[in-house]
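User: Fold this; tokens only.

Assistant: Input:
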Amino acid sequence: MQGRDWLLTGDGQYQACKSARSWDLLQENYRLYRFLTEIEDVLNGVEDESLCLPKIRMLVRRLIVNSYWVRSQYLEPSPTTKTSVLLLYDELGFPLTVQTVTFAPGSISNIHNHGTWGVVAVLKGQEKNTVWRRTQHPEFPDKIEPTGEILLSPGDIVSFTPDAIHSVEAVGDEPTVTFNIYGETDPKQRFEFDVVTHSAKKF
């Protein structure tokens, strides 16, 4: 499941990054608990966790390559919301969010940032990420414009800085399943954007 690595930033830029080769990451008995421990070790004592995204992308790829269990843990999309979320690890005081997300074909997310760093790996299906940025409009500080699109397929990994703005659409005729890991969200910095009113509200 070799794929590409991407980085999205708050200024609307997106760039392909060097990706570890899957065959270099093969490891026996590499399980979720080991992955989580290594993530904690990477982040320990780091002031700007976004600087750790290259290492986190590599660890996510190692997990996806080696763990059939993780690749098989997902729910069918809800008939009502067209999405579903399955938490893979939930412990009181644990600051990271680790989950799989399923989108029904054709479903589209709102336009948002995460208020924290994030890494998302596509396990099944395809998703289109539309990248956005604020326009620096003097009257509408939350006015945004699209800067480009990235089509992600199984094996592709996309990472975000806390202020990166994107929206996601599940394309193709099968559900899209992703593995997601996020840092600790700053609720004051997480927004949903409205392109009609040029406004943002707390997510």
